[in-house]
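User: Methyltransferase, Actinoplanes campanulatus:
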Amino acid sequence: MSAVERDAEQYEVVSAGYTAPLLAAAGITAGDRVLDVGCGYGTTTRAAALLAGSGRVLGNDLSPAMVAGARALSAGAGHVVFEAGDAQTHPFPDGGFDVAISRMGVMFFADPVAAFANIGRALRPGGRLAIATVGAPEHNDLPGLVAAAAPGADAVLALSDPAHLTAVVSAAGFQDITVRPVATTIALATDPAAAAEFICEWGAFRGFLTAGPAEGFAARRAAAAAALTVAAQRFHSGEGILLRSSAWLVTAVRPA
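Assistant: Predicted structure for Methyltransferase:
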């Protein structure tokens, strides 16, 4: 297994439970033009392409490395293209899409209203938005677990208040907004030490370890692994490390 395949597989361990609800909410049909925001390694992009048939699907992500990985993993998939860029400012074609989706890809915008407004501009009048974003902290174990080793890692909770989330999407110009909870269980690993190793190698966390001086990386990683092993103990059951996970599933429409 390549490094890209391994990293993509780890993202699926955490997020796969939200793919089916997201696609059902998006209502993608044959011929639709679909924008996938924060597409990561392209799992949801490829799934949308299967539903869109002859339609075109664009996967967008801030990370050029992930976009390159998505292209590699999508070789042979028809009607799928990928572009790296910040969805807050990326020059998507005006009215170029029928549907915009995002699975856990909208939590880190510096200006979420501007980002959603830019996504809305990319939709045709009457175009649909469907996103899954991290839900209430009391129903999500992973952010707290990760924050035990990396202060600030709980930034994924930026849109976890449904009232704030609704206000952001509304301020961006969307109408007919619905927000409903969906939940899944993350089977993270077999035991606390394996859970710590998973998180230390997980792309969403690894940046916290590599951010400092290179000569201190080994010590930072060892300290993080130790803290994560301790923190994961409370989630250990006979079935391994099981984490509660919830998301807000949001649908909205660009005004006609």
